[in-house]
Amino acid sequence: MNDDVLLELKKQKLEKQKSYVINMSRKERKRKKKLQELEKDIFETKAEESKQVVRRKLTEISKLTFMIYFKILKCYPDSKVLSVTLEGLSKFAHTINIEFYADLVELLNNLLDNAELGYREQLHCIQTVFIILSGQGEVLNIDPARFYSHFYKNLLYVNAGKNHDDMETILKTLDIILFKRRRNVTYHRYVSFVKRLSTLCLQVLPNGSLGLISLIRSCIHMNQKLDILLDTEAVNAWGVLLCLRLLGNGVQSGNSSFYKS
Question: What family does the Swiss-Prot or TrEMBL record give for this protein (predicted)?
């Protein structure tokens, strides 16, 4: 009988220990879960702090960079680093504070009129202006007619043997002028640019010609009034007209024809 009692007591003791262990396991799981949540919160807080630090440093770097750019443009227009400065401005113009837009546009206009700029430098000046005017600068009362004239004139100076590497900058600038800012471009100016692009197609390498033909095709599709450029019977003073056979989504340049009025 004593053995049975002892066995029962031992069994009860083991049950208590089991219950204790189970309860401890639950507490440990809760504790572990809570600890993981805290670690996650700490990690997210540190990550947010890191983002703020990075953002603050990038802002400071941008301010210093643009301060250097403006210093070069104002005081050292003949510097050897002017080309790099203008290229940098064209890439990051969209990040400049809107308060500086008007002064920067005027500064770039003075460079185009008075400084002895190379062809690439002129392109970067024009590209920067249109990047500014296609973003927050739309609210500014700035007439870009002078920059249209500069760009239109410079397009004829591109050729396969000398400065074909500038085609990327030209195509990006054309994309801004003819598409992003198309509502600000008059009909006659639009026609003039399309005509000029058709001439430019004959002066550049095949890859540049394909890019230009694609732009012309998109222009004609977006503006039905440009169909007059395809009218071989029209008599006008527009000079060389480009006739494209447009099939579906592609351009079959083999069937392209040119006409002189």
Answer: Belongs to the CBF/MAK21 family.
Write the pLDDT tens digit of every residue in 154-166. 888 888 777 778 8
Count CA within 13 A, CB hemisphere, residue 6: 3
Helix (H, G, I), strand (E, B) or coil at 249: coil
Same-domain check for residues 93 and 165: no
Asked if the structure places residue 24 within a domain, the reply is no
The residue written with tokens 């600038």 in the block is 173
Domain count, the chain: 2
**Domain, as residue range, for 122:** 63-143
CA distances in angstroms from 216 to 94, 129, 132, 221, 238, listed in the order given = 26, 23, 24, 9, 16
Residue 87 inside a domain? The answer is yes
Helix (H, G, I), strand (E, B) or coil at 240: strand
**Do the beta carbons of residue 256 and residue 245 sit within 8 Å?**
yes
Contact 90, 124 (CB under 8 A): yes
State the Cα–Cα distance between residues 58 and 204, nearest whole angstrom: 39
For the chain, the straight-line distance linking the first and the last C-alpha, in angstroms and rounded, comes to: 126
Domain end residue (candidates: 121, 143, 165): 143
Are 191 and 230 contained in the same domain?
yes
Q: What is the pLDDT of residues 104-141, one digit of tens each?
A: 888 888 888 887 888 888 888 888 888 888 876 666 77
Of the CA atoms within 13 Å of residue 135, those in its CB half-sphere come to: 15
Element at 196 (helix H, strand E): helix 187-200
